[in-house]
Amino acid sequence: MAAVREEVVSEIQTWSKHKDIRDMLNDVHVRYPSDAVDAVDLRLDRSCGFDAIKASYKKALLKIHPDKHDQSDVQAYVRATEMFKVVHAAFVKLKAQSTGTGAVGKRGSM
Description:
Layout: H1 2-16, H2 21-31, H3 39-42, H4 50-64, H5 74-99
Helix pairs in contact: 1-5, 2-4, 2-5, 4-5
């Protein structure tokens, strides 16, 4: 299990490096191939606002949340756990920027 975990963690970290939350949500179906993740459902364009990102983020979390996956499939469970962590961390970063004076600007206007 440790080898599987290391491999998946490395893959997800490489995938998420230098991506913002929009890129992750647009690309989650590639890293998390599953019938549960519909690419069209999560698509965001670069000009979308905070509320659109938040809605897509919530949809993604419902689909990739580790509790939604069978723990007997170790690779799928670890992948769900790691995807959940990086997508959540990216959203928390965006939320912090949108409420402060970060690069994102005011809420809803990006």
